[in-house]
Amino acid sequence: MEALHLAKILLWGLFLHRCIVSVDSAVGVNWGTLSSHKLPPAVVVDLMRENKIGKVKLFDADPDVLRALKGSGIAVMVGIPNELLAVLASSIAASDLWVSQNVSRFMVKGGVDIRYVAVGNEPFLSSYQGRYQSLVLPAMLNIQQSLARANLGGYIKLVVPCNADAYQSASVPSQGVFRPELTQIMTQLVSFLNSNGSPFVVNIYPFLSLYQSADFPQDYAFFEGSSHPVVDGQNVYYNAFDGNFDTLVAALSKIGYGQMPIAIGEVGWPTEGAPCANVTAARAFNQGLISHILSNKGTPLRPGIPPVDIYLFSLLDEEQKSLLPGNFERHWGIYSFDGQAKYPLNLGLGNGWLKNAKNVPYLPSRWCVADPSQDITVVTNHMKLACSVADCTTLYFGGSCNAIGDKGNISYAFNSYYQLQKQDSRSCDFDGIGMITFLDPSVGDCRFLVGINDNNSSCTGCGIFCGLWMMALWVIIYLRVMSSL
Ligand SMILES: *[C@@H]1O[C@H](CO)[C@@H](O)[C@H](O)[C@H]1NC(C)=O
Ligand SMILES: *[C@@H]1O[C@H](CO)[C@@H](O)[C@H](O)[C@H]1NC(C)=O
Ligand SMILES: *[C@@H]1O[C@H](CO)[C@@H](O)[C@H](O)[C@H]1NC(C)=O
Protein backbone atom coordinates (compact mmCIF):
# COMPACT_ATOMS: atom_id res chain seq x y z
CA MET A 1 0.00 0.00 0.00
CA GLU A 2 2.76 2.40 1.09
CA ALA A 3 4.81 1.58 -1.98
CA LEU A 4 1.85 2.16 -4.22
CA HIS A 5 1.30 5.53 -2.63
CA LEU A 6 4.94 6.46 -3.09
CA ALA A 7 4.78 5.40 -6.71
CA LYS A 8 1.79 7.66 -7.21
CA ILE A 9 3.56 10.62 -5.64
CA LEU A 10 6.55 9.95 -7.88
CA LEU A 11 4.22 9.75 -10.84
CA TRP A 12 2.66 13.16 -10.08
CA GLY A 13 6.15 14.51 -9.68
CA LEU A 14 6.88 13.28 -13.17
CA PHE A 15 3.76 14.85 -14.61
CA LEU A 16 4.44 18.12 -12.85
CA HIS A 17 7.98 18.10 -14.07
CA ARG A 18 6.81 17.60 -17.61
CA CYS A 19 4.30 20.37 -17.30
CA ILE A 20 6.92 22.83 -16.09
CA VAL A 21 9.67 22.09 -18.59
CA SER A 22 7.56 21.78 -21.71
CA VAL A 23 6.23 24.95 -23.28
CA ASP A 24 2.53 24.98 -22.51
CA SER A 25 1.39 25.12 -26.11
CA ALA A 26 -1.74 27.20 -26.40
CA VAL A 27 -3.31 25.62 -29.45
CA GLY A 28 -4.74 22.13 -29.19
CA VAL A 29 -7.07 20.15 -31.44
CA ASN A 30 -10.29 18.19 -31.30
CA TRP A 31 -9.90 14.61 -32.48
CA GLY A 32 -13.23 13.10 -33.48
CA THR A 33 -13.51 9.64 -34.96
CA LEU A 34 -16.82 9.59 -36.86
CA SER A 35 -15.18 8.34 -40.01
CA SER A 36 -15.33 5.15 -41.99
CA HIS A 37 -11.77 5.76 -43.18
CA LYS A 38 -10.11 6.07 -39.81
CA LEU A 39 -6.40 6.66 -39.69
CA PRO A 40 -4.80 4.23 -37.25
CA PRO A 41 -4.63 6.08 -33.90
CA ALA A 42 -0.84 5.70 -33.81
CA VAL A 43 -0.58 7.58 -37.12
CA VAL A 44 -2.72 10.41 -35.73
CA VAL A 45 -0.61 10.62 -32.58
CA ASP A 46 2.56 10.79 -34.71
CA LEU A 47 0.91 13.50 -36.78
CA MET A 48 0.23 15.55 -33.66
CA ARG A 49 3.74 15.06 -32.34
CA GLU A 50 5.30 16.00 -35.71
CA ASN A 51 3.31 19.21 -35.51
CA LYS A 52 4.16 19.77 -31.81
CA ILE A 53 0.47 19.69 -30.91
CA GLY A 54 0.52 19.19 -27.15
CA LYS A 55 -3.18 19.16 -26.29
CA VAL A 56 -6.00 17.06 -27.61
CA LYS A 57 -9.70 16.94 -26.84
CA LEU A 58 -11.57 13.69 -27.39
CA PHE A 59 -15.32 13.11 -27.47
CA ASP A 60 -15.21 9.80 -25.68
CA ALA A 61 -12.61 7.51 -24.17
CA ASP A 62 -11.94 5.07 -27.00
CA PRO A 63 -9.37 2.58 -25.65
CA ASP A 64 -7.60 2.31 -29.04
CA VAL A 65 -7.12 6.06 -29.10
CA LEU A 66 -5.97 6.21 -25.47
CA ARG A 67 -3.54 3.34 -25.97
CA ALA A 68 -1.99 5.23 -28.89
CA LEU A 69 -1.60 8.33 -26.70
CA LYS A 70 0.42 6.40 -24.09
CA GLY A 71 3.79 7.95 -23.48
CA SER A 72 3.14 10.69 -26.06
CA GLY A 73 3.33 13.50 -23.50
CA ILE A 74 0.19 14.98 -25.06
CA ALA A 75 -2.25 16.44 -22.53
CA VAL A 76 -5.64 14.83 -23.05
CA MET A 77 -9.26 15.75 -22.41
CA VAL A 78 -11.45 12.66 -22.49
CA GLY A 79 -15.18 13.00 -22.95
CA ILE A 80 -18.30 11.48 -21.49
CA PRO A 81 -20.97 11.27 -24.21
CA ASN A 82 -24.36 12.76 -23.27
CA GLU A 83 -25.97 9.33 -23.51
CA LEU A 84 -23.94 8.17 -20.50
CA LEU A 85 -24.96 11.08 -18.26
CA ALA A 86 -28.12 9.43 -16.97
CA VAL A 87 -26.44 6.30 -15.68
CA LEU A 88 -23.45 8.21 -14.31
CA ALA A 89 -25.74 10.66 -12.54
CA SER A 90 -27.74 7.94 -10.88
CA SER A 91 -25.12 5.39 -9.93
CA ILE A 92 -21.86 5.86 -8.10
CA ALA A 93 -20.94 2.30 -9.07
CA ALA A 94 -21.29 3.24 -12.74
CA SER A 95 -19.14 6.30 -12.26
CA ASP A 96 -16.49 4.27 -10.39
CA LEU A 97 -16.48 1.83 -13.28
CA TRP A 98 -16.29 4.58 -15.88
CA VAL A 99 -13.31 6.14 -14.11
CA SER A 100 -11.50 2.86 -13.63
CA GLN A 101 -12.08 1.63 -17.20
CA ASN A 102 -11.62 4.89 -18.99
CA VAL A 103 -9.23 6.93 -16.85
CA SER A 104 -7.31 5.19 -14.04
CA ARG A 105 -6.30 2.32 -16.30
CA PHE A 106 -4.33 4.76 -18.46
CA MET A 107 -2.92 6.94 -15.68
CA VAL A 108 0.17 4.85 -15.05
CA LYS A 109 3.83 5.47 -15.58
CA GLY A 110 4.40 5.93 -19.31
CA GLY A 111 0.63 6.11 -19.69
CA VAL A 112 -1.75 8.80 -20.86
CA ASP A 113 -1.60 12.31 -19.42
CA ILE A 114 -5.33 12.83 -18.89
CA ARG A 115 -5.87 16.34 -17.54
CA TYR A 116 -9.57 16.89 -18.09
CA VAL A 117 -12.76 14.90 -18.19
CA ALA A 118 -15.51 16.60 -20.18
CA VAL A 119 -18.84 15.71 -18.61
CA GLY A 120 -21.22 15.67 -21.58
CA ASN A 121 -20.80 17.51 -24.85
CA GLU A 122 -22.86 20.68 -25.19
CA PRO A 123 -25.47 19.14 -22.86
CA PHE A 124 -27.40 22.43 -22.54
CA LEU A 125 -27.87 22.84 -26.29
CA SER A 126 -31.32 24.35 -26.76
CA SER A 127 -32.25 21.76 -29.37
CA TYR A 128 -31.98 19.04 -26.68
CA GLN A 129 -34.92 20.78 -24.96
CA GLY A 130 -33.52 20.22 -21.50
CA ARG A 131 -33.06 16.46 -21.87
CA TYR A 132 -29.65 16.41 -20.17
CA GLN A 133 -29.94 19.57 -18.12
CA SER A 134 -30.62 18.05 -14.72
CA LEU A 135 -28.11 15.21 -15.22
CA VAL A 136 -24.92 17.21 -15.63
CA LEU A 137 -24.28 18.25 -12.03
CA PRO A 138 -25.16 14.91 -10.42
CA ALA A 139 -22.94 13.12 -12.97
CA MET A 140 -20.13 15.58 -12.23
CA LEU A 141 -20.42 15.06 -8.51
CA ASN A 142 -20.27 11.30 -8.93
CA ILE A 143 -17.30 11.43 -11.29
CA GLN A 144 -15.55 13.84 -8.95
CA GLN A 145 -15.93 11.39 -6.08
CA SER A 146 -14.80 8.48 -8.23
CA LEU A 147 -11.70 10.40 -9.29
CA ALA A 148 -10.95 11.25 -5.67
CA ARG A 149 -11.27 7.60 -4.68
CA ALA A 150 -8.84 6.74 -7.48
CA ASN A 151 -6.42 9.36 -6.07
CA LEU A 152 -6.79 11.41 -9.23
CA GLY A 153 -8.96 14.15 -7.78
CA GLY A 154 -6.20 16.72 -7.54
CA TYR A 155 -4.81 16.14 -11.00
CA ILE A 156 -7.78 15.69 -13.33
CA LYS A 157 -10.25 18.52 -13.68
CA LEU A 158 -13.87 18.21 -14.68
CA VAL A 159 -15.31 20.54 -17.30
CA VAL A 160 -18.55 20.87 -19.29
CA PRO A 161 -18.08 22.02 -22.89
CA CYS A 162 -20.99 24.36 -23.56
CA ASN A 163 -22.37 25.59 -26.83
CA ALA A 164 -22.42 29.38 -27.09
CA ASP A 165 -26.22 29.17 -27.16
CA ALA A 166 -26.08 28.83 -23.36
CA TYR A 167 -25.91 32.63 -23.24
CA GLN A 168 -27.36 35.46 -25.24
CA SER A 169 -27.44 39.20 -25.50
CA ALA A 170 -30.22 41.51 -26.53
CA SER A 171 -27.71 43.84 -28.16
CA VAL A 172 -24.05 44.28 -27.22
CA PRO A 173 -21.61 41.93 -25.42
CA SER A 174 -21.90 43.70 -22.07
CA GLN A 175 -25.61 42.73 -22.06
CA GLY A 176 -24.70 39.04 -22.03
CA VAL A 177 -26.76 36.74 -19.78
CA PHE A 178 -27.22 32.99 -19.56
CA ARG A 179 -30.46 31.68 -21.03
CA PRO A 180 -33.09 32.34 -18.35
CA GLU A 181 -33.92 28.65 -17.85
CA LEU A 182 -30.20 27.93 -17.32
CA THR A 183 -29.41 30.67 -14.80
CA GLN A 184 -29.77 28.49 -11.74
CA ILE A 185 -27.95 25.50 -13.17
CA MET A 186 -25.15 27.66 -14.55
CA THR A 187 -24.71 29.31 -11.17
CA GLN A 188 -24.30 25.90 -9.55
CA LEU A 189 -22.08 24.62 -12.35
CA VAL A 190 -19.79 27.64 -12.34
CA SER A 191 -19.53 27.56 -8.56
CA PHE A 192 -18.48 23.90 -8.80
CA LEU A 193 -15.95 24.63 -11.55
CA ASN A 194 -14.59 27.56 -9.58
CA SER A 195 -14.06 25.59 -6.40
CA ASN A 196 -12.15 22.97 -8.38
CA GLY A 197 -10.00 25.38 -10.37
CA SER A 198 -11.62 24.26 -13.65
CA PRO A 199 -12.18 26.63 -16.55
CA PHE A 200 -15.54 27.31 -18.20
CA VAL A 201 -15.33 25.59 -21.59
CA VAL A 202 -17.24 27.13 -24.48
CA ASN A 203 -17.51 26.37 -28.20
CA ILE A 204 -17.57 29.50 -30.37
CA TYR A 205 -18.44 29.43 -34.08
CA PRO A 206 -18.43 32.71 -36.02
CA PHE A 207 -18.87 30.51 -39.13
CA LEU A 208 -22.33 29.45 -37.96
CA SER A 209 -23.31 33.07 -37.29
CA LEU A 210 -22.35 33.93 -40.85
CA TYR A 211 -23.94 30.80 -42.30
CA GLN A 212 -27.23 31.23 -40.45
CA SER A 213 -27.74 34.93 -40.95
CA ALA A 214 -27.82 36.64 -44.32
CA ASP A 215 -27.14 40.08 -42.85
CA PHE A 216 -24.23 39.07 -40.62
CA PRO A 217 -21.33 41.25 -41.80
CA GLN A 218 -18.85 38.97 -43.55
CA ASP A 219 -15.71 40.76 -42.33
CA TYR A 220 -16.91 40.68 -38.71
CA ALA A 221 -16.49 36.88 -38.77
CA PHE A 222 -12.76 37.23 -39.44
CA PHE A 223 -9.85 38.96 -37.73
CA GLU A 224 -8.79 41.54 -40.30
CA GLY A 225 -10.82 44.37 -38.85
CA SER A 226 -14.41 45.13 -39.72
CA SER A 227 -16.27 47.90 -41.45
CA HIS A 228 -19.17 47.05 -39.13
CA PRO A 229 -17.59 47.11 -35.66
CA VAL A 230 -19.88 46.65 -32.67
CA VAL A 231 -19.71 49.64 -30.35
CA ASP A 232 -20.45 48.80 -26.73
CA GLY A 233 -19.97 51.89 -24.60
CA GLN A 234 -16.23 52.43 -24.37
CA ASN A 235 -15.52 49.13 -26.05
CA VAL A 236 -15.38 48.45 -29.76
CA TYR A 237 -15.52 44.94 -31.19
CA TYR A 238 -13.93 44.20 -34.54
CA ASN A 239 -14.56 40.47 -34.67
CA ALA A 240 -17.32 38.04 -33.74
CA PHE A 241 -15.02 35.85 -31.68
CA ASP A 242 -14.20 38.63 -29.20
CA GLY A 243 -17.80 39.79 -29.15
CA ASN A 244 -19.02 36.30 -28.36
CA PHE A 245 -16.30 35.70 -25.76
CA ASP A 246 -17.15 38.92 -23.91
CA THR A 247 -20.86 38.10 -24.01
CA LEU A 248 -19.90 35.04 -21.96
CA VAL A 249 -17.68 37.12 -19.67
CA ALA A 250 -20.64 39.45 -19.06
CA ALA A 251 -22.96 36.50 -18.39
CA LEU A 252 -20.44 35.06 -15.91
CA SER A 253 -20.09 38.44 -14.20
CA LYS A 254 -23.85 38.63 -13.72
CA ILE A 255 -23.83 35.41 -11.70
CA GLY A 256 -20.83 36.58 -9.69
CA TYR A 257 -17.96 34.89 -11.51
CA GLY A 258 -16.54 37.59 -13.74
CA GLN A 259 -12.99 36.27 -13.20
CA MET A 260 -13.74 32.65 -14.19
CA PRO A 261 -11.02 31.33 -16.56
CA ILE A 262 -12.43 30.44 -19.99
CA ALA A 263 -11.19 27.77 -22.39
CA ILE A 264 -12.36 27.41 -25.98
CA GLY A 265 -13.43 23.81 -26.48
CA GLU A 266 -14.16 24.11 -30.19
CA VAL A 267 -13.52 26.79 -32.77
CA GLY A 268 -12.83 26.52 -36.48
CA TRP A 269 -14.03 26.93 -40.05
CA PRO A 270 -15.07 24.27 -42.59
CA THR A 271 -13.50 24.10 -46.05
CA GLU A 272 -16.53 23.13 -48.10
CA GLY A 273 -20.22 22.35 -48.05
CA ALA A 274 -21.58 25.90 -47.91
CA PRO A 275 -21.05 29.12 -49.87
CA CYS A 276 -18.99 30.69 -47.09
CA ALA A 277 -17.05 27.49 -46.43
CA ASN A 278 -13.91 27.25 -48.52
CA VAL A 279 -10.19 26.76 -48.10
CA THR A 280 -9.37 30.48 -48.35
CA ALA A 281 -11.90 31.44 -45.69
CA ALA A 282 -10.92 28.54 -43.39
CA ARG A 283 -7.28 29.48 -43.62
CA ALA A 284 -7.96 33.18 -43.02
CA PHE A 285 -10.13 32.43 -40.00
CA ASN A 286 -7.89 29.86 -38.35
CA GLN A 287 -4.66 31.76 -38.96
CA GLY A 288 -6.28 35.01 -37.83
CA LEU A 289 -7.59 33.30 -34.71
CA ILE A 290 -4.23 31.77 -33.82
CA SER A 291 -2.38 35.08 -34.27
CA HIS A 292 -5.06 36.82 -32.23
CA ILE A 293 -4.75 34.34 -29.37
CA LEU A 294 -0.95 34.30 -29.42
CA SER A 295 -0.79 38.09 -29.40
CA ASN A 296 -2.12 37.87 -25.82
CA LYS A 297 -4.27 40.90 -26.50
CA GLY A 298 -7.32 39.36 -24.90
CA THR A 299 -10.68 41.06 -25.33
CA PRO A 300 -12.09 44.44 -24.20
CA LEU A 301 -13.53 42.86 -21.04
CA ARG A 302 -10.40 40.76 -20.46
CA PRO A 303 -7.50 42.77 -21.81
CA GLY A 304 -4.25 40.84 -21.81
CA ILE A 305 -5.96 37.59 -20.77
CA PRO A 306 -6.44 35.20 -23.69
CA PRO A 307 -8.41 31.96 -23.17
CA VAL A 308 -6.53 29.43 -21.03
CA ASP A 309 -6.74 26.77 -23.74
CA ILE A 310 -8.07 26.64 -27.25
CA TYR A 311 -8.93 23.50 -29.20
CA LEU A 312 -9.34 23.85 -32.94
CA PHE A 313 -12.26 22.08 -34.50
CA SER A 314 -11.06 19.96 -36.01
CA LEU A 315 -7.98 17.91 -36.63
CA LEU A 316 -9.47 15.62 -39.30
CA ASP A 317 -12.53 15.54 -41.54
CA GLU A 318 -15.16 13.06 -40.39
CA GLU A 319 -17.32 11.86 -43.24
CA GLN A 320 -19.80 9.95 -41.11
CA LYS A 321 -20.96 13.02 -39.21
CA SER A 322 -24.62 13.97 -39.37
CA LEU A 323 -25.67 16.20 -42.25
CA LEU A 324 -28.36 17.86 -40.16
CA PRO A 325 -26.35 21.06 -39.58
CA GLY A 326 -25.41 21.18 -43.29
CA ASN A 327 -23.02 19.55 -45.77
CA PHE A 328 -20.13 21.49 -44.23
CA GLU A 329 -20.37 19.34 -41.08
CA ARG A 330 -18.09 16.71 -42.64
CA HIS A 331 -15.40 19.20 -43.62
CA TRP A 332 -14.16 20.92 -40.48
CA GLY A 333 -10.68 19.36 -40.54
CA ILE A 334 -7.46 21.31 -40.93
CA TYR A 335 -6.48 17.93 -42.41
CA SER A 336 -8.48 15.74 -44.75
CA PHE A 337 -9.56 12.34 -43.36
CA ASP A 338 -6.17 10.89 -44.31
CA GLY A 339 -4.03 13.46 -42.53
CA GLN A 340 -3.12 15.65 -45.52
CA ALA A 341 -3.07 19.37 -44.72
CA LYS A 342 -5.78 21.18 -46.67
CA TYR A 343 -3.98 24.53 -46.58
CA PRO A 344 -0.82 26.01 -45.10
CA LEU A 345 -1.43 26.86 -41.45
CA ASN A 346 1.00 27.88 -38.75
CA LEU A 347 -0.26 26.69 -35.38
CA GLY A 348 2.13 28.99 -33.59
CA LEU A 349 3.88 26.08 -31.92
CA GLY A 350 7.27 26.92 -33.35
CA ASN A 351 6.97 24.41 -36.12
CA GLY A 352 6.15 26.27 -39.35
CA TRP A 353 3.38 25.06 -41.68
CA LEU A 354 1.33 21.95 -40.99
CA LYS A 355 3.14 18.71 -41.72
CA ASN A 356 1.28 15.80 -43.28
CA ALA A 357 0.66 12.38 -41.77
CA LYS A 358 3.26 9.73 -42.49
CA ASN A 359 2.83 6.00 -43.07
CA VAL A 360 -0.84 6.25 -44.02
CA PRO A 361 -1.97 2.68 -44.74
CA TYR A 362 -3.98 3.38 -47.92
CA LEU A 363 -5.86 0.63 -49.69
CA PRO A 364 -4.42 -0.14 -53.15
CA SER A 365 -4.56 2.68 -55.73
CA ARG A 366 -7.79 1.76 -57.47
CA TRP A 367 -11.12 3.39 -57.93
CA CYS A 368 -14.64 2.52 -59.00
CA VAL A 369 -16.20 4.61 -61.77
CA ALA A 370 -19.16 4.41 -64.15
CA ASP A 371 -18.25 2.42 -67.25
CA PRO A 372 -18.15 5.03 -70.03
CA SER A 373 -19.52 2.53 -72.56
CA GLN A 374 -22.71 1.98 -70.53
CA ASP A 375 -25.99 3.83 -70.59
CA ILE A 376 -26.01 5.77 -67.34
CA THR A 377 -29.52 7.19 -67.49
CA VAL A 378 -30.76 4.37 -65.29
CA VAL A 379 -28.40 4.75 -62.35
CA THR A 380 -30.15 7.40 -60.25
CA ASN A 381 -31.21 4.83 -57.70
CA HIS A 382 -27.76 3.32 -57.45
CA MET A 383 -26.35 6.76 -56.91
CA LYS A 384 -28.92 7.57 -54.24
CA LEU A 385 -28.19 4.35 -52.43
CA ALA A 386 -24.42 4.82 -52.62
CA CYS A 387 -24.71 8.37 -51.30
CA SER A 388 -27.03 7.37 -48.48
CA VAL A 389 -24.17 5.52 -46.80
CA ALA A 390 -21.02 6.93 -48.37
CA ASP A 391 -20.16 10.62 -48.39
CA CYS A 392 -21.21 12.63 -51.47
CA THR A 393 -21.33 16.10 -49.89
CA THR A 394 -18.54 17.38 -52.14
CA LEU A 395 -20.90 17.01 -55.16
CA TYR A 396 -23.27 19.69 -53.95
CA PHE A 397 -23.23 23.43 -54.29
CA GLY A 398 -20.21 24.79 -52.46
CA GLY A 399 -18.39 21.45 -52.72
CA SER A 400 -15.06 20.69 -54.40
CA CYS A 401 -16.66 18.23 -56.87
CA ASN A 402 -19.72 20.27 -57.74
CA ALA A 403 -18.67 20.90 -61.33
CA ILE A 404 -17.64 17.46 -62.57
CA GLY A 405 -20.78 16.76 -64.62
CA ASP A 406 -23.42 14.04 -64.50
CA LYS A 407 -21.11 11.17 -65.29
CA GLY A 408 -18.56 12.52 -62.87
CA ASN A 409 -21.23 12.67 -60.19
CA ILE A 410 -22.12 9.04 -60.73
CA SER A 411 -18.51 7.90 -60.74
CA TYR A 412 -17.81 9.89 -57.61
CA ALA A 413 -20.74 8.27 -55.82
CA PHE A 414 -19.74 4.80 -57.00
CA ASN A 415 -16.18 5.31 -55.82
CA SER A 416 -17.17 6.68 -52.42
CA TYR A 417 -19.28 3.59 -51.88
CA TYR A 418 -16.59 1.23 -53.15
CA GLN A 419 -13.98 2.72 -50.82
CA LEU A 420 -16.45 2.62 -47.92
CA GLN A 421 -16.77 -1.12 -48.65
CA LYS A 422 -12.98 -1.37 -48.44
CA GLN A 423 -12.72 -1.95 -52.20
CA ASP A 424 -14.76 -5.14 -52.14
CA SER A 425 -15.09 -5.81 -55.88
CA ARG A 426 -18.79 -6.74 -55.49
CA SER A 427 -19.44 -3.21 -54.27
CA CYS A 428 -18.42 -1.80 -57.68
CA ASP A 429 -20.98 -3.74 -59.68
CA PHE A 430 -24.04 -1.48 -59.77
CA ASP A 431 -25.80 -3.83 -62.22
CA GLY A 432 -22.78 -3.92 -64.47
CA ILE A 433 -22.44 -0.15 -64.76
CA GLY A 434 -19.53 0.17 -62.37
CA MET A 435 -15.98 -0.68 -63.30
CA ILE A 436 -12.69 -0.69 -61.43
CA THR A 437 -9.92 1.53 -62.73
CA PHE A 438 -6.25 1.98 -61.85
CA LEU A 439 -6.16 5.52 -63.27
CA ASP A 440 -6.90 8.21 -60.71
CA PRO A 441 -10.20 9.82 -61.86
CA SER A 442 -9.63 12.96 -59.73
CA VAL A 443 -10.17 16.22 -61.61
CA GLY A 444 -8.77 19.54 -60.42
CA ASP A 445 -9.67 20.11 -56.78
CA CYS A 446 -12.09 17.22 -56.87
CA ARG A 447 -10.36 14.30 -55.28
CA PHE A 448 -11.63 10.75 -55.72
CA LEU A 449 -10.56 9.18 -52.48
CA VAL A 450 -8.72 5.96 -51.80
CA GLY A 451 -9.78 4.44 -48.50
CA ILE A 452 -7.66 3.53 -45.54
CA ASN A 453 -6.92 0.05 -44.37
CA ASP A 454 -7.98 0.52 -40.79
CA ASN A 455 -8.95 -2.97 -39.76
CA ASN A 456 -5.61 -3.95 -38.27
CA SER A 457 -6.66 -2.49 -34.94
CA SER A 458 -9.91 -4.41 -34.80
CA CYS A 459 -10.58 -8.09 -34.33
CA THR A 460 -10.64 -9.04 -37.99
CA GLY A 461 -7.02 -8.03 -38.27
CA CYS A 462 -5.64 -9.76 -35.23
CA GLY A 463 -5.90 -13.25 -36.63
CA ILE A 464 -5.14 -16.32 -34.63
CA PHE A 465 -4.63 -14.63 -31.26
CA CYS A 466 -8.00 -13.02 -31.47
CA GLY A 467 -9.57 -16.32 -32.44
CA LEU A 468 -7.96 -18.08 -29.49
CA TRP A 469 -8.98 -15.28 -27.19
CA MET A 470 -12.59 -15.42 -28.37
CA MET A 471 -12.58 -19.17 -27.86
CA ALA A 472 -11.24 -18.74 -24.33
CA LEU A 473 -13.95 -16.19 -23.65
CA TRP A 474 -16.66 -18.55 -24.85
CA VAL A 475 -15.26 -21.32 -22.66
CA ILE A 476 -15.34 -19.02 -19.65
CA ILE A 477 -18.89 -17.89 -20.38
CA TYR A 478 -19.93 -21.50 -20.92
CA LEU A 479 -18.38 -22.59 -17.61
CA ARG A 480 -19.99 -19.68 -15.77
CA VAL A 481 -23.40 -20.46 -17.18
CA MET A 482 -22.98 -24.14 -16.36
CA SER A 483 -21.85 -23.45 -12.81
CA SER A 484 -24.71 -21.08 -12.18
CA LEU A 485 -27.29 -23.68 -13.18
C1 LIG B 1 -15.76 3.93 -21.21
O1 LIG B 1 -15.94 4.83 -22.27
C2 LIG B 1 -16.46 4.24 -23.42
C3 LIG B 1 -16.40 5.27 -24.50
O2 LIG B 1 -17.01 6.44 -24.11
C4 LIG B 1 -17.84 3.73 -23.16
O3 LIG B 1 -18.36 3.12 -24.31
C5 LIG B 1 -17.79 2.77 -22.05
O4 LIG B 1 -19.08 2.41 -21.73
C6 LIG B 1 -17.11 3.39 -20.85
N1 LIG B 1 -17.00 2.42 -19.80
C7 LIG B 1 -17.84 2.44 -18.78
C8 LIG B 1 -17.65 1.40 -17.77
O5 LIG B 1 -18.73 3.28 -18.65
C1 LIG C 1 -14.85 31.82 -49.60
O1 LIG C 1 -15.57 32.25 -48.46
C2 LIG C 1 -15.44 33.63 -48.23
C3 LIG C 1 -15.99 33.91 -46.86
O2 LIG C 1 -17.27 33.47 -46.66
C4 LIG C 1 -16.13 34.38 -49.36
O3 LIG C 1 -16.06 35.75 -49.17
C5 LIG C 1 -15.44 34.02 -50.67
O4 LIG C 1 -16.11 34.61 -51.74
C6 LIG C 1 -15.38 32.52 -50.85
N1 LIG C 1 -14.47 32.25 -51.94
C7 LIG C 1 -14.82 31.48 -52.94
C8 LIG C 1 -13.79 31.25 -53.97
O5 LIG C 1 -15.92 30.97 -53.00
C1 LIG D 1 -23.89 16.76 -59.68
O1 LIG D 1 -24.64 16.65 -58.51
C2 LIG D 1 -24.86 17.86 -57.82
C3 LIG D 1 -25.59 17.50 -56.58
O2 LIG D 1 -26.76 16.83 -56.87
C4 LIG D 1 -25.62 18.84 -58.63
O3 LIG D 1 -25.72 20.08 -57.97
C5 LIG D 1 -24.86 19.03 -59.88
O4 LIG D 1 -25.60 19.88 -60.70
C6 LIG D 1 -24.64 17.70 -60.52
N1 LIG D 1 -23.91 17.93 -61.70
C7 LIG D 1 -24.43 17.66 -62.84
C8 LIG D 1 -23.67 18.14 -64.02
O5 LIG D 1 -25.47 17.06 -62.95
TrEMBL record:
Xref: InterPro entries: GH, Glyco_hydro_17, Glyco_hydro_17_plant, X8
A single BP term in Gene Ontology: carbohydrate metabolic process
Transmembrane spans: 462-481
EC number(s) from the headed UniProt entry: 3.2.1.39
Principal place of residence: membrane
Positions of the X8 domain: 366-448
Recorded GO MF terms: glucan endo-1,3-beta-D-glucosidase activity
Membrane topology: Lipid-anchor; GPI-anchor
Keyword field: Cell membrane, Disulfide bond, Glycoprotein, Glycosidase, GPI-anchor, Hydrolase, Lipoprotein, Membrane, Plant defense, Signal, Transmembrane, Transmembrane helix
UniProt key word Transmembrane helix: yes
Catalytic activity, reaction form: Hydrolysis of (1->3)-beta-D-glucosidic linkages in (1->3)-beta-D-glucans
Signal peptide positions (record): 1-25
Xref: SMART domains: X8
One GO cellular component, as annotated: plasma membrane
Cross-referenced Pfam families: Glyco_hydro_17 (PF00332), X8 (PF07983)
Family of this protein: Belongs to the glycosyl hydrolase 17 family.
PANTHER family (alphabetical): GLUCAN ENDO-1,3-BETA-GLUCOSIDASE BG1-RELATED-RELATED
Record protein name field: glucan endo-1,3-beta-D-glucosidase
Source species of the chain: Canna indica
